[in-house]
Design goal:
With about 425 residues, the chain is an alpha+beta fold. It contains 12 helices and 19 strands. The protein is globular.
């Protein structure tokens, strides 16, 4: 970090987690993640096959949308939206304004094309459902957020969508619903303008993924990024790590996790550290992504063993490949660390599948990471399961406390080592070529 940056990290050991319940507006949950693509159809199909996510809704030429093609995948409460622009001339040929038929009216043709050119496949929007998107937007802007798209009503004023800049070309999207049924929910499959995909439902897919646990961003400088997001959301610090916590003798990073009141919306951010033997993997990301962006998406599974078995079947036939597993020595002490939570059979399966296991004073964390999902060594996927921290609501229904098991320093360190080793395999050919 720069000398003028007074932002100081305490590190994992010294950090004391507190929850001041300081949100500036009511945040309910993650609503969806939108990827901007050059080709939404094939990108969505790849994610559907690799993650076991069902095609459930569409907005494209067949639904009257002449602005963009958007396809929604769903697994449990996890929604991934894949969007690609049509030519602006399509709408103009019908004497329509560029975004008049768009179901996501915040899309800008030139920005969408520039996004793909600069970043390759990546996340454009992290969408959270709020009580009132207009209030969330005005509150955010009045507290320093940079506006991206002012509030716009969708359908017959059934939903409101607004966006503020998060980091790089990524926006934080606010979504709220006006017309709700008797149980307090809305009747839309997703958003107004989207139609159900009937044919896809005849081929059910479900690998056990249930929701988005957290969305991680890489930024050039952590201090300004954390201060910016905290200032307009009121989110509090949930965890932090320094290079001493998770780095190696060759490289490192710093990281802070921000959370909303109920700690179900978790937004970690990483920065590179400099002066090390190797370039920080965060710096590698920033160079290939041409700036800040979403590094990975952590998807919560109800049964990580089932999810991984299904995903690994498809790794080399259109699915996602995984980072190298930790060495056998990692699993030798696993029974001592988690034998009261995992059976001997599950511990064996963790080793076979390459699952990392860590815990804190509240719960246990199981996780694994894919290799980058596109051409560039940038965005990847994490599969996660949290064990423990079960609570009851006022109706007696059980639910799991947000962030149960934390963010495992041991797991974080193993991930860092794994990415470092993976990057070395990419560099080997470059070094050989340079020396030829």
């Amino acid at each position: 970090m720069g000398k003028d940056n007074e932002f100081k990290l305490q590190g994992f050991s010294s950090f004391v987690r507190t929850n001041p319940k300081s949100d500036r507006f009511t945040v309910k949950r993650f609503h969806h993640i939108e990827f901007w693509c050059a080709d939404a159809t094939n990108t969505a199909r790849r994610f559907s096959w690799g993650l076991g996510m069902q095609f459930v809704a569409k907005s494209d030429l067949s639904t009257g949308n002449m602005t963009h093609a958007s396809y929604l995948l769903r697994s449990g409460e996890l929604d991934f939206l894949f969007t690609a622009p049509y030519s602006p001339s399509i709408a103009q040929s019908q004497n329509l304004s560029p975004n008049s038929t768009a179901s996501i009216p915040t899309l800008d043709h030139s920005a969408c094309r520039a996004f793909s050119a600069s970043h390759g496949l990546g996340v454009r929007a992290i969408a959270i459902e709020v009580e009132d998107a207009e209030i969330a937007f005005t509150t955010s802007v009045s507290n320093g957020a940079l506006p991206s798209s002012p509030p716009v009503r969708l359908g017959d004023n059934d939903a409101t969508l607004a966006e503020v800049k998060l980091y790089g070309d990524v926006v934080l999207r606010y979504v709220s619903f006006s017309n709700k049924n008797d149980d307090g929910n809305h009747d839309f499959l997703f958003l107004p303008g989207f139609e159900k995909i009937e044919d896809a439902l005849s081929y059910p897919l479900d690998f056990g993924i249930r929701r988005l646990d957290h969305a991680v961003g890489n930024v050039p400088q952590l201090g300004p990024a954390v201060s910016y997001l905290k200032s307009f959301t009121g989110f509090h610090e949930f965890a932090e790590f320094t290079a001493e916590d998770v780095g190696t003798t060759e490289s490192g990073l710093n990281s802070v996790v921000l959370a909303n009141n109920d700690e179900m919306v978790l937004l970690p951010m990483n920065e590179p550290v400099f002066g090390t033997k190797r370039k920080s993997q965060i710096q590698t990301y920033l160079e290939h992504n041409e700036g800040a962006g979403v590094q990975h998406l952590a998807l919560m599974s109800e049964d990580i063993f089932k999810t991984l078995r299904e995903m690994r079947k498809r790794s080399f036939v259109g699915g996602f490949e995984f980072m190298p597993s930790p060495p056998p020595t990692y699993y030798k002490n696993l029974k001592n660390r988690a034998g009261d939570v995992l059976s001997d059979e599950q511990i064996k399966e963790c080793e076979e599948l390459g699952i990392l296991v860590d815990r804190d004073d509240q719960g246990t964390l199981l996780q694994i990471f894919t290799k980058p999902v596109g051409d560039r060594p940038t965005i990847f996927i994490e599969i996660i399961q949290r064990v423990g921290c079960m609570l009851k609501d006022e109706n007696g229904k059980q639910y799991q406390k947000g962030g149960c098991g934390g963010f495992g320093k041991g797991n974080f360190s193993e991930l860092f080592k794994s990415i470092e080793e993976y990057e070395k395999t990419l560099e080997a050919k470059i070094v050989d070529s340079a020396g030829a």
